[in-house]
Amino acid sequence: MQPLNPKGRQQSHLYLIYEVCIAFPSSLVVVLKSHYYRSKMSSPNVVLVTGGTGLVGQAIKHVIETESEGSRFGKQPGEKWIFASSKEGDLRDPAQTRALYEKYQPTHVIHLAALVGGLFKNMKYKMTFLRDNLLINDNVLEAAHEKNTQKVISCLSTCVFPDKVEYPLDETKIHTGPPHQSNFGYAHAKRLVDVQNHAYKEQYGHNFTSAIPTNVFGPHDNFDLEDSHVIPGLIHKCYLAKKNGTPFIVAGTGKPLRQFIFSYDLAKLFIWMLREYDDVEPVILSVGEDEEVSIKEVADAIVKAVDFKGDYTFDTTRADGQFRKPASNKKLLTLMGGFEFTPFPEALDLTVKWFVENYDKARTGAAGKA
Ligand code: NAP
Ligand code: GFB
């Protein structure tokens, strides 16, 4: 068949889209939707990222600064992005929260700010996790209501789901039973955001929604030896074991299973939600269920990535926490028309390389505790 119109790159680009849409009609919907949404968001928007200095915030900054302008995950012409830290305003305080909105007048908010930590910190500070996150979330959503912000995407976590429920976890199961004991403070504060979003929608028609990421890792993470999540914690421990010739000890039995998403991939999914998702119902942002790995497999991968030659042991006196929380990403992939995740070993290598190169300025927790 003669090519429709072979002349010029632009035409061949359009010709390619034409061919793809003929071959795969469903992609036509995705292409049109993505073009429609980007054209709808063409007016210069001001996007405020609360928690912009953390693991996920810095990943969104990286993607917005490296993807080409106007592309699906890139900055749109004239768009302004603000990556706020707690130094710009403690969001537990309503006045400081309002002041942040007053200063930047955001049209859209990606709300990431939270008291965050791994299993052992969650087990120690359940009330602080509950109260700090309740205050932060309430202030951010109420200020958005007062300012009639066009859209707010809040960030939950797959630990909000019930511990005892039929797997895989999907977006309909958030409120169908108690979360795991180890992090019920954090989990209930996060679950309430979904309730708040629905209430703001019903009473005021606001476009407030939420994302539910699985365990995240990447550059700019918190590598504190005790308070961090498993991947940054073990990277730091393995790095010190290699450097000082000390034992590398993994907490627990190594049997629990987890899904891990690379922060740069998660960042793109948040940008997709900002551009193309307008529904109050939450979306799980995760790799597939078949990517579940055991903590032992994670430790083995870290030993390889750090190039540690010694042996390592398990401290089974320490907690395993929730055994597994397998989440389905079916809704996400259906809505997006598919997504290519960074292979785990490659993402882990990037993270270890970043940590080793930035050890002096990374959050290693050396300077004091919560
Ligand atoms: P993080 O690295 O610990 O960063 C937390 C961010 O929140 C920082 O920018 C911090 O500012 C800010 N923040 C903390 N308390 C604040 C306060 N009182 N007022 C204003 N800002 C405050 O966290 P993260 O891992 O990027 O997490 C981002 C979001 O993803 C959170 O909502 C978290 O619950 C969610 N999440 C994370 C994971 C994970 O595995 N990491 C998994 C699922 C969901 P400073 O830099 O000034 O301290
Ligand atoms: O990442 P992590 O702290 O969080 O722990 P959760 C995952 C698993 O790794 C647990 C084991 O089974 C730990 O026993 N583990 C082994 C380690 N060595 C280490 C280590 O050095 N540090 C840590 N931290 N773990 C959190 C929730 O649960 O998931 C949070 O408590 C949040 O609220 C987060 O939702 C995403 O996956 O168990």
From TrEMBL:
Keyword Membrane: yes
Associated pathway: Nucleotide-sugar biosynthesis; GDP-L-fucose biosynthesis via de novo pathway; GDP-L-fucose from GDP-alpha-D-mannose: step 2/2
Membrane-crossing residue ranges in chain numbering: 12-32
Pfam families with a match to the protein in the record: Epimerase
Ranges of residues in domain NAD-dependent epimerase/dehydratase: 47-288
GO biological process: 'de novo' GDP-L-fucose biosynthetic process
Entry keyword annotation includes Membrane: yes
Enzyme class: oxidoreductase
GO terms assigned for molecular function: GDP-L-fucose synthase activity; isomerase activity
Keywords, sorted A to Z: Isomerase, Membrane, NADP, Oxidoreductase, Transmembrane, Transmembrane helix
Signal sequence coordinates: none
EC numbers on record: 1.1.1.271
PANTHER family named in the record: GDP-L-FUCOSE SYNTHASE (PTHR43238)
Family: Belongs to the NAD(P)-dependent epimerase/dehydratase family. Fucose synthase subfamily.
Protein known as: GDP-L-fucose synthase
Species: Ephemerocybe angulata
